[in-house]
Amino acid sequence: MAAGTRSTLLSWVRHLRRGRITGLTGCSRSISTHVPKKSALLKNGLVWSSLSLLAIGSYSWKKRAAVVYASIRVEDVKEQADYLYGSGDTEKLHEFLSQYRQSNDAEVLWRLARASRDLAQLSKTAPNDKKKLVYEARELAQKALEINESCSAAHKWYAICLSDVGDYEGMKVKIGNAYIIRNHFQRAIELNPKDATTIHLIGVWCYMFAELPWYQKKIASALFATPPSSTFEEVNYELC
Question: Coiled-coil intervals in this record (predicted)?
Answer without folding.
Answer: none
